[in-house]
Write a structure and sequence with these properties.
2 copies of one chain form a homodimer.
Chain A lengths: L18 H9 L10 E2 L9 H15 L2 H9 L8 H15 L8 E4 L2 H12 L1 E2 L5 E6 L19 E3 L3 E5 L3 E5 L11 E7 L11 H14 L3 E4 L22 E6 L11 E4 L2 H15 L5 H11 L2 H28 L5 E4 L6 E6 L6 H10 L2 E2 L1 E2 L17 E5 L4 H20 L2
Parallel strand pairs in A: 1-14, 4-5, 4-8, 7-12, 8-9, 9-10
Antiparallel strand pairs in A: 2-11, 3-4, 6-7, 10-11, 12-13, 13-16, 15-16
Helix pairs in contact in A: 4-8, 9-11
Chain lengths: 423, 423
Amino acid sequence: MGKTMKFSRYAKRFDSGSGTVQLMEDLGAARRTRGPVYMLGGGNPAHIPEVQSIFQREMLRIASDSAAFGRMVGDYDVPQGNVEFTTALASLLNRKFGWPLGPENIAITNGSQSSFGLIFNSLAGEFDDGRFRRVLLPITPEYIGYSDVGIYDKPLFEGHRPTIAKLPGGFFKYHIDLDSLTIDDRYGAVCVSRPTNPTGNVVTDAELQELARRCREADVPLVIDGAYGLPFPGIIFTEAQPLWEPNIILCLSLSKLGLPGVRAGIIVARPEFIRLVRNANAINSLAPGRVGPELVAALLEDDSLLDLCNEIIRPYYKRKMEHVVDCVRSIMGDLPVWIHQPEGALFVWLWFENLPITSEQLYQKLKDRGVFILAGHHFYPGLDEDWPHKYQCIRVNYATDIAVVEQGLKIIADTVRESYRAT
Amino acid sequence: MGKTMKFSRYAKRFDSGSGTVQLMEDLGAARRTRGPVYMLGGGNPAHIPEVQSIFQREMLRIASDSAAFGRMVGDYDVPQGNVEFTTALASLLNRKFGWPLGPENIAITNGSQSSFGLIFNSLAGEFDDGRFRRVLLPITPEYIGYSDVGIYDKPLFEGHRPTIAKLPGGFFKYHIDLDSLTIDDRYGAVCVSRPTNPTGNVVTDAELQELARRCREADVPLVIDGAYGLPFPGIIFTEAQPLWEPNIILCLSLSKLGLPGVRAGIIVARPEFIRLVRNANAINSLAPGRVGPELVAALLEDDSLLDLCNEIIRPYYKRKMEHVVDCVRSIMGDLPVWIHQPEGALFVWLWFENLPITSEQLYQKLKDRGVFILAGHHFYPGLDEDWPHKYQCIRVNYATDIAVVEQGLKIIADTVRESYRAT
């Protein structure tokens, strides 16, 4: 095939060692692996029949109507994103939470991952004043997908170590270590996912308010990644309130509603930032995808999407979460395992205290046995300190079939048990 | 809303002055403008009823099948892009053209515009050897969308001035000025769109072969942007042959088939480059959209997509093209207008020789009268020389209703006529 290609410095970012690449490649591994596969990695949401049937109904309605279908697939959307969708969402957020938003506060992207790349590189990195500002992650573990989006040789993130509260019943919870956290002009942005991917932690209302206050005072934007959160898909099992103010950039997604194939992310921010997103959309991809927004817009207008979240999606994942916790207790009762308090999202985060092998070694052993999980050490963007806890945790996606989760947990238990015994 | 936000140097790229932003914003202008609007700007393809009805049929089939619909919208695709699609396309390209390709040669992106950003920045720009390599555009006018994708302060493109052949009947054709073209290690890549957006030019087979030869010898990859071309949508009215070899990166798209809303671009290249695209997809957006590929895959397998291109799409645009040429002749017969030989795509490129106002001034005057076109001067990425021809041309999209095109041309004729009279 000729000589090796010459790639620019920019292209070096896209080498195969990235955790995000591994994560997404694993999603397709089932088809390439012999023997049974237990797919507990990745972030694929469940196929919830009641939810999917509503999207099917909407798609059938649109595909039966030449004009509506022509709009959905046959016309470029405006670069800010579908006007019906942004208008309906602004109205919903106003109606439900009293946020003073119009369509000028909302833009659509090709998925949250695209949103993050744009947001972090636009608010942090190199500035005209010669400074290099980072994105502060006030609580790690934090989402693996952030790690690789920085376009610079220097790290774009600074991760902050949490405090750990051990709770009754073998649970634990990370908290933001507010005492040691200083937010100032060194940072271009601060970001939390809520619920947290990977841990299922929900940063408390008090923690979030305090973060927002410090960010406001330091004039540093606060990014809230609500991909699993509020107002939709609403996979939160605690009494958390959503928050927006002009200093906050809220990221939402259609993926965890059950629509990852349409690639639709949503950014809620002040108009100045939305114009930047619009321009970036035009330059990077002419316009964002139109299928997801057209599919969902009508469900925003009559509040049926929120009903779906409250009545079907949240209870569905809550049952799954309770079941996976029961499974861990019964299958791993003999192991020194702590479960992060499962407050949201579709993962359990298991901490094997003093695990004798690293989470990467555990990942490899499990992969050899057909069980795909995510090794915990990937989830500490910008936390370089050598903290053993980083290598003792795994993320398990429980969105798939109960039988698969159960069998996968048994294999995980066996593998972990062997590793403790070997020492 | 608080203080002005601080944006990084990266974000400066996304200011509102970009031609791409203007182009895409104009597409949404109809809804914001009073009075009649003649939308002859942008690159929106026609809604061809026979074509759309086939996509509707496919969508209805998939949306009626829970498993198929669940795959399309409910699962992340692998980051390289839909396996059914890449397998079917590789097989088609092999079958039709004898190209030795497998699915490892094909990746999917969120539209051609995303492909270009990745390709140009990965093959050109800053290198570890300290050099800054540009992308050579051997023939301008060339696609406006390339202009803004470079991530550097320095220009990423070097445009080459064409020769102009005046032809009988008021036509003209640009040719690559091969005599003055040197391809060497100064360039990271060479790129041509074929058919050319904006001119409807089709670089001849001989020109393309010569470009490919020089690129191969200089070990510089040749990018062929076939968004309007071969094998689909096949909007080419001359006898052009498609070309691929390991040194060529061929970019295709589903947009001009009538599916711009799904945002699906396709890259055909050697596996080494496809792996880079896969990794970039994972890092930049987890996975590309799945709706377009799932919608079209079955039509690739049984060749019905190519039949559609040959029997419906090409003849449809050919009739439109012949009509718009007739209109220009009858409406502008008194003006010194040259039509670029319309060999493909869905535009006519009109050259008003010695136009007394600039194409930007003409664009503004036309916009005030409700006619949206694209001013020609945007289409010279990296051609800085002060060549009056750059300001004497406009691009007119003729994909829309005949009556709209006709009325738009009348207003263009009136406006141009006034400008000649005023001098």
